[in-house]
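TEACHING EXERCISE
Course module: macromolecular assemblies
Task: Read the component lines below, then compare them to the predicted structure of the full complex.
Student: A.B.
Group: 4
Components provided:
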Amino acid sequence: MSQSEPKALAPAPASAGAGALATKKRKRHYSVLNRRDKVLLSLMVGIPLAVFLLLIWAMTLVSIVLSFTNWDGVNPIAFVGIDNYTQLFTTYPFFWPAVAHNIMWLLFFVCLATPMGILLAVLLDRPLRGSAVYQSIFFIPVVLSLAVVGFIWKLQYLPLAGNGFIDSAFVALGWMDPKHAVNWLGDPTINIWAVLVAASWRHVGYIMVLYLAGLKSVDPSLREAAAIDGANERQTFIHVVFPVMAPINVVIVVVTVIESLRAFDIAYIINHGKNGLELLSILITNSALSEAGLIGFGSAVAVILLTISLVPIVLYLSRVMRSENQ
Amino acid sequence: MDDLDKKSGFLTGGKVTRREVLKTGVIAAAGLTLLPTVLAACGSSSSGGKVTIGNNHSDASDLAGMKAVNDAFSKANSSITLTMNTVDHNTFQDQINNYLGATPDDAFSWFSGYRMRFFADKGLATAIDDSWANVKSNFTAGFANSVVGNDKKVYGIPVDYYPWCVFYRKSLFSDKGYTVPATWDDLLTLCAKMKTDGLTPFAFGDSDGWPAMGTFDILNLRLNGYDFHVGLMTGAQKWTDPKVTAVFQTWAKLIPFYTDGYAGLTWQQACDTLVRKTAGLYLLGLFMTGEVATVDKTAVDDIDFFPFPFFGNAFDAEQALDAPIDIWMLSAKSPSLQADLASAKTYLEFWAKGSTQMLMYAANNGFIPCATDADPTTLSVLTKKAVEIVSKAQKITQFLDRDTRPDFAGANSMQSFLLNFLKTPTQDLTAFQLSIQDFWDKLPVYKG
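Instructor-supplied answer key:
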């Protein structure tokens, strides 16, 4: 590579001024890439492409096909049309709650957890004594895997009979009547919120670090200019810093959507996604990957989750492509 | 050994017993996943057979029992090389489809009843009628029936079982002057009294989803009898039947006596409330004594139990109860099975002996031996009582999730349905039962 590049590149500026015919002739004789480069490049592109096609596209297509069957993993595959989908949409009582919980997850993150992370990042970006300490404290949960986060919060939320920390502490402080203790994980109207708080505990720190990194890269002269123009801190952030941060903002949105759609670990650890904690990802696992072996049914849920995921992906890609074209 | 005790005692504050040191060693050995049980006779000829086994008894005490059994087997059959593959109990269950459908071990541990027949029907198990002929004299009719497939062939060797009963602490009952309830009305009276005494009458923890099934089973058996229960589990009866409505309506009377927050508690945490005497009664399998021992060893002798109270109807005479049986089976798709068939059958027949099953019982008293020739004199008082209650029972069921198809009994199916009922027992039961039946109707059809 290094040898051929100067040779090929050097004449290029000259040829730009010369006639098109000369350029064509030179291109034929002096390709930018020699034979070895071409082999290397096709390997470098070909292998990832093959892996990508096999592990992403082939798998996706197989899932879509299987969603129209009632395969149990052993017996011959029998096609059942859209039976799996009609069952999900009409009679299966745990599908719509799962969809609702995924949407609640997304809304909770978008409206509360992510703005909270951004707020923390903005606050900690200011000169503040012990800023590093605060950053570390908020970032610690991000280092933990979601499974560990699930275990930690499960112990906090346990009922009084299980010595849960929150209930025990509230009762000890006299804030809660032991006869009417809150059943954080067992009450299906409350447990999804309890889990969302646990998930946010980690998500806030994650967003904070991402945004803080972005804020550090904002040119300080922009703030100075804004200050000279008489903008206060809030105006500076809204009208100067936030627009400059556009690339980071897109990353934040994408991360938030991904985290919401792949929600799984905490709810699975708490009760395998039952009793108010149904999630699409867990329905897939419990149907297709458990002893049940309902691979066709589970694939139908997976296809629906894929369809939902496509919405933000398409929005994101169309936005990226539009800005690239400009 | 004394030196070892002292050393480990020093490191951990003197609380480690020799037994725990041994247990730790066993766990460490199991960590190697593939645990080759090396043959006792080192000099034995290489002409002997081989057998690989898939084991789901993954808890430390159970694994110690498995090792004792395998050592005894190797001693008795020095020419057979035994390889054990231990998988975490719940993981084994979750992966059973993939495991049996791909390249399983020659023999594997599993459950009797519908759950055995289900995989036998799928062609994933090998019939062992010839082995059974050699050992069947060692089992009573109840155990023998539990291992027969839909094709009338035998697919497993019964090795242990445990009954589901109502457990209580003797000292609590004598302190408060409670008596064991014989009828359903007695039970409700007792529960009401316990509540006024500031106790939780019924310990209950359903975070895992399956404990509630035990209550459904026993109420259905008491109210509608064995035949209806089996029909319901196999699809011959409908979930929309008014008899099922009666079960739910009766159950609703018990729910106010349950532990607060039961849906967020594991069965172990619920068990602890019984041990700490904040709860009075607990309906669970005999294996709960293992949890009692981990919380408070001295409490084990204070535990007693009684069969679930009767309703004074025609089904009292059945004295039916859940007593799930664990079995050993042969897989069908093991690549080495053809070569290993003889030694694999030898291994299964070895499990049919009372002496083998007693080795497992010695490691964990939750495993009551099934074999008739198991030495009864060495059983604990509690186990003897369990044996007596089960032998009195005219009808024995396995457990909801073992008596019905596995795709019906999972986390987002029956477990969720029952939790849904417990949450709102006053809901429209007709619509609720219809959604269960509909879920059943939509499951894949296995046999034309």
